[in-house]
Specification:
The protein is of the alpha/beta class. It is about 50% helix and about 10% strand. The structure holds tryptophan (TRP).
């Protein structure tokens, strides 16, 4: 049960900013509001042409919006390689909602042979809010790096940039970017106010810098594709604005939705740990979280049989769809649920059957990652031009 304070705002009311995601998100409206492009059938067929398949996360609409993704694919088709760039703010431990776009990023790296820059914004997470200490962000930086490596990125083609550790590689670009952005633009894009600390106000160019770093590394203009959740879009809007003036390509993006929390619908949140499955959770904990999850079911079995459930308002359904069901299984689950022929217990059981082994295996890879952290760090071995 959620307390009244956690009740999502009225239907139709939602907030998506890089630091706050609240309410029931209407993704179509977001595409309009942010001025991004929807993923079209034409893009799916292009992917099919280039890779021989369409990844389920694209096909099922987990990645639903983009800017210039088609342009990057066209370039690639003509033989021009692109870099991937994504990142993580180390505000806590990693849960399944975080790893989804990373799994997709690895898929893109494997299919297109792309080099990847992975930024850890420990500065951002320290600066945001009142109560985070440097020690906390330092610890989460290390813990999160283990998760990133556990995804299986190619060590030869992947470099992790920790902002406070590798700032010398970002700073020249960040100042070039910062010089071209006024406070009035930053306020409009990020909603900064007079009471925002000036560290936060100065931070966006640091997150923008890796968009152009590949061009500096390679000594020529390099297209960059950013797979990320849609809440990061304001950064790229700002970056795209200055790209031309700096003589670089505008960074392209592919935007994901959020994986709903198990507590209720909305972004899976690390601040409500009982509603997220963490990569470090013990099997019993995963079992407990799945079995006590909020669902789209009716209050009683009789009502469920009579009225059917609401799968698209059910986090268990979405977890299964994105992670563990095949498309066919998921479509069948949807129909069976709606017609009252499926009870929530069965879906929760299926989720536990998927999530327990997933987390168990992930944890093993995470432990192995401890030995190779140095290999992935940006300044240990810069990616060869
Ligand atoms: N600001 C992001 C966060 O809070 C971290 C991040 C930095 C990022 N660079 C990125 C995310 C690029 C996606 C793509 O999580």
């Amino acid at each position: 049960m959620s307390s009244p304070a956690e009740e999502p705002a009225e239907k139709g009311d939602f907030t998506v900013t890089p630091w706050e995601v609240e309410g029931e998100i209407d993704y179509n409206r977001l595409v309009e509001k942010f001025g991004t492009q929807p993923i079209t059938p034409a893009i799916l067929s292009k992917m099919k042409k280039l890779t021989g398949e369409v990844h389920p996360m694209l096909k099922l609409g987990y990645f639903f919006s983009h800017r210039d993704f088609d342009w990057v694919l066209d370039k690639k088709e003509k033989g021009e390689d692109f870099y991937l760039y994504t990142g993580r703010g180390p505000s806590g431990m990693v849960h399944m909602g975080h790893v989804m776009p990373w799994i997709f990023t690895k898929y893109l790296q494997d299919r297109f042979g792309s080099k990847l820059l992975f930024q850890i914004t420990d500065d951002e997470k320290f600066l945001y809010g009142q109560d985070r200490t440097r020690e906390e962000t330092r610890r989460y930086t290390y813990e999160n790096i283990l998760d990133i490596i556990a995804i299986g990125f190619d060590p030869k083609k992947t470099r992790i940039i920790v902002d406070t550790k590798h700032i010398q590689h970002l700073y020249p670009l960040a100042t070039e970017i910062a010089k071209r952005i006024t406070f009035s633009t930053a306020k409009a894009v990020f909603g900064f106010t007079n009471s925002t600390n000036i560290g936060m106000i100065g931070f966006p160019p640091v997150q923008a810098a890796p968009c152009f770093l590949p061009s500096v590394i390679e000594g020529r203009n390099v297209p960059v594709l950013i797979p990320a959740a849609i809440d990061q879009d304001p950064y790229w809007r700002m970056t795209r604005d200055v790209a031309d003036r700096m003589g670089y390509y505008k960074p392209a993006q592919i935007h994901s939705k959020f994986l709903p929390g198990l507590g209720m619908m909305g972004k899976m949140s690390s601040s409500k740990p009982e509603t997220a499955i963490f990569t470090t959770d013990e099997p019993e904990v995963v079992e407990k979280k799945t079995s006590s999850s909020f669902t789209g079911g009716q209050p009683t079995v009789a009502l469920q049989r009579q009225l059917g459930g609401n799968p698209t308002g059910c986090p268990v359904f979405w977890y299964l769809r994105y992670f563990f069901d095949t498309e066919k299984q998921s479509d069948e689950r949807l129909l069976k649920c709606r017609s009252g022929n499926l009870l929530c217990g069965e879906c929760k059981g299926d989720l536990a059957k998927g999530a327990v082994p997933f987390v168990t295996q992930f944890k093993k890879r995470r432990e192995k990652a401890r030995d190779v952290v140095a290999k992935f760090m940006y300044d240990e071995q810069p990616i060869e031009p």
